[in-house]
Amino acid sequence: MSSTARSRTGRHAAITRLIEQGDIASQEQLRAALAAAGIATTQATLSRDLVDLGATKVRTANGRSVYRLPDADAPTPEVPVDSQLARRAADLLATADTVLNQVILRTPPGAAQLLAAALDRHVLPGVLGCVAGDDTVLIVCRGQAEAEETHSLLLRLAGRSA
Question: What is the annotated localization of this protein (predicted)?
Fold first, then answer.
């Protein structure tokens, strides 16, 4: 195993432990806790790690926003209608088209990666993967029918008719 993989794995384990042990409210607080544990990281790397781990911010009973990790034992719905994906689609989706087994999404400049990241965090049936540029997201599906279903779902989430 490479040193990069070991350090990433170790960082993920430490992040998981810190989030599960306490009320981590910000990336800076998490970065400081990691530094105290002897793990130096940048904010950009930490942000990617949180996405990789599926960490989200939730509001506690006292009104504080803190990071939480998904429940590993919870079943993953086949088609999650997640508010973050719906929000991203509503805010960022400019146009959507299908070509054979592909869905092409257009966003404002610089926003494609945000939409693609929201898509990557969800299990969409028939989707093999997606790639983002600056203002375009390419979604590759198993077939044309799956591409059309994905297209319709994204338009519905964005609040537009298919």
Answer: Cytoplasm
